[in-house]
Design brief:
four-stranded mixed β-sheet, eight-stranded mixed β-sheet, alpha/beta, 317 residues, binds tryptophan
Length: 317
Protein backbone atom coordinates (compact mmCIF):
# COMPACT_ATOMS: atom_id res chain seq x y z
CA UNK A 1 0.00 0.00 0.00
CA UNK A 2 1.44 3.43 -0.79
CA UNK A 3 1.91 5.63 2.24
CA UNK A 4 0.03 8.92 2.74
CA UNK A 5 1.99 12.03 3.67
CA UNK A 6 0.42 14.86 5.69
CA UNK A 7 2.51 18.00 5.89
CA UNK A 8 1.75 20.08 8.98
CA UNK A 9 5.29 21.37 9.15
CA UNK A 10 5.70 24.87 10.56
CA UNK A 11 6.85 27.49 8.04
CA UNK A 12 10.52 28.55 7.84
CA UNK A 13 9.90 31.81 9.76
CA UNK A 14 9.45 29.73 12.88
CA UNK A 15 13.10 28.74 12.75
CA UNK A 16 14.37 32.32 12.42
CA UNK A 17 11.96 33.64 15.03
CA UNK A 18 12.73 30.92 17.52
CA UNK A 19 16.48 31.23 16.97
CA UNK A 20 16.41 35.00 17.57
CA UNK A 21 14.15 34.56 20.58
CA UNK A 22 16.38 31.89 22.10
CA UNK A 23 19.59 33.84 21.57
CA UNK A 24 18.01 36.92 23.19
CA UNK A 25 17.64 34.96 26.44
CA UNK A 26 20.22 34.76 29.23
CA UNK A 27 21.66 32.18 29.23
CA UNK A 28 21.28 31.88 25.46
CA UNK A 29 19.49 28.83 24.20
CA UNK A 30 18.39 27.05 21.03
CA UNK A 31 15.57 24.58 20.65
CA UNK A 32 16.75 20.97 20.22
CA UNK A 33 13.93 20.25 17.78
CA UNK A 34 16.03 21.98 15.10
CA UNK A 35 18.73 19.32 15.39
CA UNK A 36 16.90 17.07 12.99
CA UNK A 37 17.54 18.28 9.47
CA UNK A 38 18.78 15.62 7.05
CA UNK A 39 22.37 15.75 8.26
CA UNK A 40 21.26 15.93 11.90
CA UNK A 41 19.05 12.90 11.49
CA UNK A 42 21.92 10.98 9.85
CA UNK A 43 24.31 11.93 12.65
CA UNK A 44 21.72 10.95 15.19
CA UNK A 45 21.32 7.52 13.54
CA UNK A 46 25.10 7.11 13.83
CA UNK A 47 25.05 8.20 17.50
CA UNK A 48 22.50 5.53 18.30
CA UNK A 49 24.97 2.88 17.09
CA UNK A 50 27.91 4.13 19.17
CA UNK A 51 29.27 1.84 21.90
CA UNK A 52 28.98 4.63 24.50
CA UNK A 53 25.38 5.45 23.61
CA UNK A 54 23.64 2.63 25.50
CA UNK A 55 19.97 3.87 25.34
CA UNK A 56 19.08 2.77 21.80
CA UNK A 57 20.37 -0.78 21.88
CA UNK A 58 19.08 -1.25 25.42
CA UNK A 59 15.59 -0.08 24.45
CA UNK A 60 15.61 -2.31 21.37
CA UNK A 61 16.68 -5.23 23.55
CA UNK A 62 13.75 -4.61 25.90
CA UNK A 63 11.31 -4.37 22.98
CA UNK A 64 12.64 -7.62 21.54
CA UNK A 65 12.68 -9.51 24.81
CA UNK A 66 9.27 -8.28 25.95
CA UNK A 67 7.46 -8.22 22.62
CA UNK A 68 4.75 -10.64 23.68
CA UNK A 69 4.00 -8.93 26.98
CA UNK A 70 3.98 -5.55 25.26
CA UNK A 71 1.50 -6.84 22.68
CA UNK A 72 -0.78 -8.02 25.49
CA UNK A 73 -0.87 -4.46 26.86
CA UNK A 74 -1.09 -2.56 23.58
CA UNK A 75 -3.25 -5.00 21.61
CA UNK A 76 -3.23 -5.97 17.93
CA UNK A 77 -4.86 -4.24 14.92
CA UNK A 78 -4.59 -0.84 16.58
CA UNK A 79 -3.94 2.60 15.22
CA UNK A 80 -0.33 3.02 16.34
CA UNK A 81 0.92 6.60 16.59
CA UNK A 82 4.68 7.00 16.82
CA UNK A 83 6.08 10.28 18.10
CA UNK A 84 9.45 11.14 16.60
CA UNK A 85 9.89 8.33 14.12
CA UNK A 86 13.55 8.10 15.04
CA UNK A 87 14.86 4.58 14.79
CA UNK A 88 13.80 2.22 12.00
CA UNK A 89 15.00 -0.75 14.02
CA UNK A 90 12.77 -0.03 17.03
CA UNK A 91 9.59 0.47 15.11
CA UNK A 92 10.13 -2.73 13.15
CA UNK A 93 10.47 -4.75 16.33
CA UNK A 94 7.24 -3.21 17.59
CA UNK A 95 5.33 -3.55 14.30
CA UNK A 96 6.31 -7.22 14.19
CA UNK A 97 4.89 -7.91 17.64
CA UNK A 98 1.82 -5.61 17.44
CA UNK A 99 0.77 -5.88 13.79
CA UNK A 100 -1.24 -2.62 13.91
CA UNK A 101 -3.85 -1.89 11.23
CA UNK A 102 -2.69 1.70 10.82
CA UNK A 103 0.75 3.16 11.55
CA UNK A 104 1.04 6.93 12.03
CA UNK A 105 4.66 8.09 12.26
CA UNK A 106 4.90 11.74 13.36
CA UNK A 107 8.22 13.48 12.80
CA UNK A 108 9.53 17.00 12.32
CA UNK A 109 12.06 15.95 9.69
CA UNK A 110 10.12 15.59 6.42
CA UNK A 111 12.89 14.01 4.41
CA UNK A 112 13.73 11.49 7.08
CA UNK A 113 10.04 10.69 7.49
CA UNK A 114 9.49 10.10 3.75
CA UNK A 115 12.46 7.72 3.62
CA UNK A 116 11.35 5.67 6.56
CA UNK A 117 7.61 5.69 5.71
CA UNK A 118 8.27 4.45 2.19
CA UNK A 119 10.47 1.62 3.42
CA UNK A 120 7.97 0.60 6.08
CA UNK A 121 5.05 0.77 3.62
CA UNK A 122 6.98 -1.50 1.24
CA UNK A 123 7.85 -4.04 3.93
CA UNK A 124 4.42 -4.10 5.66
CA UNK A 125 2.08 -4.17 2.66
CA UNK A 126 -1.09 -4.91 4.66
CA UNK A 127 -0.66 -1.96 7.00
CA UNK A 128 -1.98 1.54 6.27
CA UNK A 129 0.76 4.16 6.73
CA UNK A 130 -0.24 7.78 7.44
CA UNK A 131 2.96 9.79 7.82
CA UNK A 132 2.59 13.15 9.56
CA UNK A 133 5.27 15.81 9.28
CA UNK A 134 4.71 18.06 12.28
CA UNK A 135 6.21 19.59 15.39
CA UNK A 136 4.41 17.43 17.95
CA UNK A 137 5.72 19.61 20.76
CA UNK A 138 3.64 22.52 19.41
CA UNK A 139 0.43 20.70 18.56
CA UNK A 140 -0.45 17.11 17.99
CA UNK A 141 -2.55 17.56 14.86
CA UNK A 142 -3.46 14.28 13.15
CA UNK A 143 -5.28 13.37 9.93
CA UNK A 144 -8.64 11.55 10.06
CA UNK A 145 -8.02 8.10 11.47
CA UNK A 146 -10.32 5.10 11.87
CA UNK A 147 -12.52 5.67 14.94
CA UNK A 148 -13.36 2.02 15.72
CA UNK A 149 -9.81 0.75 16.23
CA UNK A 150 -8.07 0.97 19.60
CA UNK A 151 -5.38 3.61 19.71
CA UNK A 152 -1.87 3.22 21.02
CA UNK A 153 1.12 5.53 21.09
CA UNK A 154 4.81 4.72 20.93
CA UNK A 155 7.18 7.38 22.22
CA UNK A 156 10.67 5.86 22.09
CA UNK A 157 14.21 7.05 22.67
CA UNK A 158 13.65 8.87 25.94
CA UNK A 159 12.69 11.90 23.86
CA UNK A 160 10.32 12.79 26.69
CA UNK A 161 13.50 13.56 28.66
CA UNK A 162 14.29 16.35 26.22
CA UNK A 163 11.35 18.37 27.58
CA UNK A 164 11.22 20.32 30.82
CA UNK A 165 9.16 18.25 33.27
CA UNK A 166 6.18 20.63 33.07
CA UNK A 167 6.31 20.64 29.25
CA UNK A 168 6.60 16.85 29.36
CA UNK A 169 3.39 16.68 31.39
CA UNK A 170 1.53 18.87 28.94
CA UNK A 171 2.84 16.90 25.94
CA UNK A 172 1.75 13.64 27.59
CA UNK A 173 -1.63 15.21 28.25
CA UNK A 174 -1.94 15.99 24.51
CA UNK A 175 -1.03 12.39 23.69
CA UNK A 176 -3.68 11.21 26.15
CA UNK A 177 -6.28 13.34 24.41
CA UNK A 178 -5.41 11.89 21.01
CA UNK A 179 -5.55 8.36 22.44
CA UNK A 180 -8.79 8.80 24.34
CA UNK A 181 -9.82 7.00 27.55
CA UNK A 182 -8.36 3.51 27.74
CA UNK A 183 -5.68 4.23 25.13
CA UNK A 184 -2.22 2.89 25.87
CA UNK A 185 1.16 4.53 25.55
CA UNK A 186 4.47 2.71 25.34
CA UNK A 187 7.22 5.10 26.28
CA UNK A 188 10.99 4.67 26.59
CA UNK A 189 12.64 6.54 29.46
CA UNK A 190 16.31 6.66 30.33
CA UNK A 191 16.98 5.85 33.98
CA UNK A 192 19.08 7.74 36.52
CA UNK A 193 22.48 6.12 36.94
CA UNK A 194 26.08 6.96 37.73
CA UNK A 195 27.56 10.10 36.24
CA UNK A 196 30.37 8.40 34.35
CA UNK A 197 28.09 6.17 32.34
CA UNK A 198 25.72 9.07 31.59
CA UNK A 199 28.41 11.53 30.58
CA UNK A 200 30.21 9.03 28.33
CA UNK A 201 26.99 8.55 26.36
CA UNK A 202 26.97 12.25 25.39
CA UNK A 203 30.74 12.64 24.90
CA UNK A 204 31.61 9.86 22.47
CA UNK A 205 35.23 9.47 21.44
CA UNK A 206 34.37 9.64 17.72
CA UNK A 207 32.92 13.13 18.34
CA UNK A 208 29.64 12.34 16.61
CA UNK A 209 27.64 13.96 19.39
CA UNK A 210 29.84 17.04 19.05
CA UNK A 211 29.17 17.09 15.28
CA UNK A 212 25.44 16.63 15.95
CA UNK A 213 25.37 19.56 18.39
CA UNK A 214 27.44 21.82 16.08
CA UNK A 215 25.29 20.93 13.07
CA UNK A 216 22.61 23.11 14.64
CA UNK A 217 24.74 26.15 13.81
CA UNK A 218 25.34 24.95 10.25
CA UNK A 219 21.61 24.56 9.82
CA UNK A 220 20.90 28.04 11.19
CA UNK A 221 23.50 29.46 8.80
CA UNK A 222 21.77 27.81 5.88
CA UNK A 223 18.12 28.27 6.80
CA UNK A 224 18.14 31.52 8.76
CA UNK A 225 20.91 33.28 6.85
CA UNK A 226 23.29 33.41 9.82
CA UNK A 227 27.10 33.52 9.71
CA UNK A 228 28.17 31.35 12.66
CA UNK A 229 31.85 30.31 12.40
CA UNK A 230 31.29 26.74 13.52
CA UNK A 231 35.02 26.27 14.24
CA UNK A 232 34.72 28.85 17.03
CA UNK A 233 32.20 26.85 19.05
CA UNK A 234 32.76 23.65 21.00
CA UNK A 235 30.49 20.87 22.24
CA UNK A 236 30.05 20.47 26.01
CA UNK A 237 27.85 17.90 27.76
CA UNK A 238 27.66 17.09 31.48
CA UNK A 239 25.31 15.61 34.07
CA UNK A 240 23.59 18.20 36.27
CA UNK A 241 22.78 15.93 39.17
CA UNK A 242 20.68 18.46 41.10
CA UNK A 243 18.35 18.79 38.11
CA UNK A 244 18.63 15.12 37.13
CA UNK A 245 19.56 15.94 33.55
CA UNK A 246 22.33 15.83 30.98
CA UNK A 247 22.89 19.33 29.60
CA UNK A 248 24.32 19.97 26.16
CA UNK A 249 25.85 23.32 25.34
CA UNK A 250 27.75 25.02 22.52
CA UNK A 251 30.59 27.05 23.99
CA UNK A 252 31.96 30.11 22.24
CA UNK A 253 35.75 29.75 22.22
CA UNK A 254 36.36 33.50 21.92
CA UNK A 255 34.60 36.84 22.02
CA UNK A 256 32.76 37.11 18.71
CA UNK A 257 29.77 38.52 16.87
CA UNK A 258 27.32 36.60 14.75
CA UNK A 259 24.94 38.18 12.25
CA UNK A 260 21.49 36.65 11.83
CA UNK A 261 18.99 38.26 9.49
CA UNK A 262 20.63 41.67 9.94
CA UNK A 263 20.87 41.39 13.73
CA UNK A 264 24.26 41.28 15.45
CA UNK A 265 24.54 38.95 18.41
CA UNK A 266 27.56 39.12 20.69
CA UNK A 267 29.19 36.15 22.44
CA UNK A 268 31.73 36.37 25.25
CA UNK A 269 34.66 33.95 25.40
CA UNK A 270 33.35 30.85 27.17
CA UNK A 271 29.70 31.93 26.87
CA UNK A 272 27.42 29.02 26.16
CA UNK A 273 24.28 28.35 24.18
CA UNK A 274 22.24 25.73 26.01
CA UNK A 275 21.00 23.43 23.26
CA UNK A 276 19.43 20.49 25.03
CA UNK A 277 18.48 18.81 28.26
CA UNK A 278 18.03 15.11 28.65
CA UNK A 279 16.20 14.41 31.91
CA UNK A 280 16.69 11.05 33.55
CA UNK A 281 13.94 9.53 35.68
CA UNK A 282 13.66 6.75 38.20
CA UNK A 283 10.69 4.45 37.54
CA UNK A 284 8.77 6.09 40.40
CA UNK A 285 9.55 9.63 39.26
CA UNK A 286 8.35 8.87 35.76
CA UNK A 287 5.16 7.25 37.00
CA UNK A 288 4.41 10.42 38.94
CA UNK A 289 4.94 12.49 35.80
CA UNK A 290 2.53 10.22 33.91
CA UNK A 291 -0.03 10.45 36.69
CA UNK A 292 0.09 14.25 36.51
CA UNK A 293 -0.75 13.96 32.82
CA UNK A 294 -3.72 11.66 33.47
CA UNK A 295 -2.09 8.28 32.86
CA UNK A 296 -2.19 5.20 35.06
CA UNK A 297 1.03 3.22 35.38
CA UNK A 298 0.32 -0.25 34.07
CA UNK A 299 3.64 -2.00 33.64
CA UNK A 300 7.29 -1.29 33.05
CA UNK A 301 10.19 -3.30 31.71
CA UNK A 302 13.89 -2.78 32.12
CA UNK A 303 17.20 -4.44 31.18
CA UNK A 304 19.34 -6.51 33.56
CA UNK A 305 21.67 -3.55 34.23
CA UNK A 306 18.71 -1.20 34.84
CA UNK A 307 19.99 1.30 32.33
CA UNK A 308 16.71 2.04 30.57
CA UNK A 309 12.99 1.64 31.17
CA UNK A 310 10.01 1.07 28.88
CA UNK A 311 6.66 1.95 30.48
CA UNK A 312 3.14 1.07 29.46
CA UNK A 313 0.84 3.84 30.72
CA UNK A 314 -2.90 3.95 30.15
CA UNK A 315 -5.17 6.96 29.82
CA UNK A 316 -7.27 6.99 32.96
CA UNK A 317 -11.07 6.95 32.84
N1 LIG B 1 16.35 11.76 23.55
C1 LIG B 1 17.60 11.04 23.51
C2 LIG B 1 18.52 11.48 24.63
O1 LIG B 1 18.30 12.51 25.22
C3 LIG B 1 18.26 11.18 22.20
C4 LIG B 1 18.94 12.47 21.94
C5 LIG B 1 18.37 13.64 21.71
C6 LIG B 1 20.34 12.65 21.88
N2 LIG B 1 19.34 14.56 21.46
C7 LIG B 1 20.53 13.99 21.58
C8 LIG B 1 21.43 11.83 22.02
C9 LIG B 1 21.81 14.51 21.48
C10 LIG B 1 22.70 12.35 21.90
C11 LIG B 1 22.89 13.67 21.64
O2 LIG B 1 19.45 10.78 24.93
Amino acid sequence: MPYAFHDYHPPAEDLLGEVLGGLARRPKRLSPKFFYDRRGSQLFDAITRLPEYYPTRTEIGILQQRGEAIAVHLGHDSVLIELGSGSPQKIRVLLDSLRPAVYVPVDISGEHLRDSASHIARDYPDMQVEAVCADYSASLQLPDLPQQAARAAFFPGSSIGNFEPQAAVSLLRDVGEVLGPGGAMLIGVDLKKDRQKLEAAYNDTRLLTAAFNLNLLTRINREAGADFDVSRFAHRAFYNEAEGRIEMHLVSSCAQQVCIDGQHIGFGAGETIHTENSYKYSVEEFRELGAEAGFEAEQFWTDPEQLFSVHCLRVAG
